[in-house]
Specification:
Rossmann fold; single chain; 18% strand; 6 strands; six-stranded mixed beta sheet; 169 residues; 5 helices
Length: 169
């Protein structure tokens, strides 16, 4: 009797493992929710070298970014731990008194969870090779990948997943 029961359980387990998983629900925009807007940008212009700082032009653009987003209800700021990304986020952090939280660009799922948990609007500073993927993960239609020469575009993902781009001035 125990052998027969064991075989039945083994067969049930095997069939269950082979069954197709239930269809996943359609992705919900991370930006969903009252008033949450996600701003995603690449770091501003950088100097040369390993883990470079922003160039003079990039530092000025970071200041302009801070002025642009000052009244947007930013409650969280995320940037990769590179010098150029942290320096891009720093002026807005200083202006809003919202600390910059470093994130690992190799772990975008963790960043998505952090952004989803944030109340209010969010700024994410990434890199030319991560911005398009981040926008998709936040529920927006991704733009074409950025090139090494693309700086100063801020992608705005609204609560419905709509995406628009503005330039830092």
């Amino acid at each position: 009797m125990q052998k027969w029961l064991g075989l039945v359980l083994l067969a049930a387990f095997t069939l269950g493992a082979c069954a197709a998983p239930a269809a996943a629900p359609p992705p919900k925009s991370v930006a969903s929710g009252a008033g949450k807007t996600i701003f995603v940008t690449r770091h501003m212009q950088k100097a040369q070298g390993e883990d470079p700082s922003l160039s003079g032009e990039g530092a000025a653009a970071a200041q302009s970014l801070a002025r642009m987003l000052a009244d947007e209800g930013i409650s969280a700021i995320f940037a990769t731990p590179t010098r150029r990304a942290m320096e891009t986020a720093a002026p807005l952090s200083k202006l809003t008194r919202v600390p910059v939280t470093p994130y690992d660009p190799r772990n975008p799922r963790q960043l998505v969870a952090l952004v989803a948990a944030a109340q209010g609007s969010v700024l994410v500073v990434g890199h030319s090779n991560t911005v398009h993927d981040l926008i998709a993960r936040f529920g927006g239609a991704p733009p074409a990948p950025l090139t090494e020469q693309d700086y100063g575009t801020v992608f705005i993902i609204d609560a419905k997943g709509g995406v628009r781009a503005i330039e830092v001035r």
